[in-house]
Amino acid sequence: MRFLSRRLVMPNDLNFAGSLFGGRILEWIDEEAYIFASCQLGAKSLVTKHIGAITFETSAFQGDVVEFGLQVKSVGRTSLAITCLVRNKHTKQNICSADDIVFVHIDPETRQPTPHGKTKEQLDDFPEPL
Question: Tens digits of per-residue pLDDT, 9-43?
């Protein structure tokens, strides 16, 4: 799993109890997974079709740095499924996981699913970032 990005938990990210709001982390997961899928496929015309099981394991608080680990789970003809793990950068404790985030490649004009032309093997060979 590649941990490619980080975010700082700010005051406006907190819920009434003073911990990271679940809706905010889901927003971040969707955004990070889209960026990862888009980079993997070399395409920006992707839509989120499905986000599977979400598991919250521990809280994050103001000032914590959270990092997002992403990996390709499976590849379809027009789709790509991603797994995301969010953890505390310093403690390495898992905060949240989202298994089975599915994006569909669409034609930008017709908005219909269209083949992306990639295989799991091609994406598994994707080079590590610098």
Answer: 999 999 999 999 999 999 999 999 999 999 999 98
CATH number at residue 113: 3.10.129.10
Domain of residue 83 covers: 2-123
Q: What is the number of structural domains in the chain?
A: 1
Q: What is the pTM of this model?
A: 0.90
Tens-place pLDDT, residues 46-59: 999 999 999 999 99
CA dihedral 50, 55, 59, 62 (to 10 degrees): -10
* 130 domain-assigned: no
Torsion of CA 7, 8, 12, 17, to 10 degrees: 110
In a domain, residue 129? The reply is no
- Cβ-defined contacts of 13-18 (< 8 Å, 24+): 13/62, 14/61, 14/62, 18/61, 18/62
Both tokens assigned to 62: 């103001």
